Amino acid sequence: MKYSVDKNGFYGDFGGAFIPELLYPNVKELEDNYIDILESEEFITEYKGLLKDYVGRPSPLYLAKRLSAKYGGNIYLKREDLNHTGAHKINNTVGQILLAKKLGKKRIIAETGAGQHGVATATVCALMDLECIVYMGEIDIERQAPNVARMKMLGAEVRPATSGSKTLKDATNEAIRDWINNPLDTYYLIGSVVGPHPYPDLVTRLQSVISEEMKKQLKEKTGKENPDKIIACVGGGSNAAGAFYHFLEDDDVELIAVEAAGMGVDTGETAATTKMGTPGIIHGSKTLLMQDEFGQITEPYSISAGLDYPGVGPLHAHLFKTKRGRFLNATDREALEAARELTLLEGIIPALESAHALAVLSKIEINDSDTIVVNLSGRGDKDMDTFQRELGY
Ligand SMILES: *Cc1c(COP(=O)(O)O)cnc(C)c1O
After folding, report:
1. 184 C-alpha vs ligand 1 centroid, how far in Å?
2. Sign of the CA dihedral running 85, 5, 270, 19
3. In the structure, what pLDDT confidence band is assigned to residue 132 with cuts at 50, 70 and 90?
4. Out of 91, 134, 186, 307, which could bridge 182 as a Cys pair, Cβ 3.0 to 4.6 Å?
5. How many domains, in total, are found in the chain?
6. pTM of the predicted model, to two decimals?
7. Do 343 and 264 fall within a single domain?
8. What whole-number distance in Å separates Cα of residue 352 and Cα of residue 303?
9. Residue 267, domain CATH
């Protein structure tokens, strides 16, 4: 398996667990137990049950006829936007909360940037009656007031990170500090395929339900399990990892990852990590990240809060390096126009993140016989303020 994590937690050159010694016991406990728990019958039954009845899976695979007429081929949308809480993130938090319970943990901590992962975490903590503390940069708390209110309504405590740039990386530092101080009863619930091993593999496995369903649904609808192309946006990379997972070894499927170019990859206002990044260590993992000559992480920029991350998960760094994945990008403006277009053609308002994936349909070659799946990672309700401001509604 060329694209699976090895026993040391690496995907080729990337991954691993670069953590302070004080965190070692926590990470080791997780590493020693996660596969056995994930593969146990009890876990599988509970996880699949919640995905079906609570999240609303399987999410539909929808043939977008008018979008296909415009770009050619048969373009299907994997409708993660129809999940409970409006995006793919819930697939992961439902799985990790069950894992935390099996490990006997009583207290859940998380960090969040835009607040989407915080909401998905607070949701499952309410469901399972577990204490929930979400670290969030002070600036992000101001920028993302509706999600802060949601987390509070769900019973979570939102703790501001007041150091540094007061954004996501500072919230991450606070969460790690908390975990070091509370090693026994606390579970750190990470929201994407990032962080020290085993988190990238854990989150990939939990999101892989997306490609598992795609295979079945494509077989039913087209007679073939494999599409010609799969397109997904990449922030940390969890929706893309989930959409790619069961196709990684199928070389006939082209995997297209789309990063946020922001104002443009050469403007300094960007989150296109594989274009602008270099190898380094972020969040306990060796991967590609945007950093200055002194190894200080540079602040990323994208209009889409979910893609505004200075790294990519180690699996994606590996897919990029080995060329198994094709990495493209879309600017703020291109994503906004793609969101408008999908809305008018199909009556679906996508999340701004997902709109980046849609925006590359105009940049790739498409044959009339092609089957293409775009992973529609989330719905656009949360982005209405931005659409109103930028598109003038
Ligand atoms: C958080 C988010 C993303 C980006 O996260 P990944 O881990 O890269 O998937 C993409 N789309 C939506 C709708 C999100 O909420």
Report:
1. 30
2. positive
3. very high
4. 186
5. 2
6. 0.98
7. yes
8. 8
9. 3.40.50.1100
Average model confidence (pLDDT) across the chain: 97
Residue of 239, 287, 383 to test ligand 1 pocket, by largest number of atoms within 8 Å of CB: 239
Smallest Cα–Cα separation from 308: which of 273, 339, 283, 278?
A: 273
**What stretches of 320-385 adopt beta strand conformation (E)?**
325-331, 371-376
Collapsing DSSP states into helix, strand and coil, what is residue 228? coil
Q: Mapping DSSP to helix (H, G, I), strand (E, B) and coil, where does residue 331 land?
A: strand
**Which residues lie with the beta carbon below 6 Å from any ligand 1 atom?**
87, 89, 116, 192, 233-239, 306-307, 351, 353-354, 377-378
Q: Give the pLDDT confidence of 361-372 residue by residue, as tens digits.
A: 999 999 999 999
Q: Which of 203, 230, 262 is the last residue of a domain?
A: 203
Would you state the pLDDT for residue 354? 98
Residue entry with tokens 């101080």 = 181
pLDDT tier at 164, thresholds 50, 70, 90: confident
40 is catalytic: no
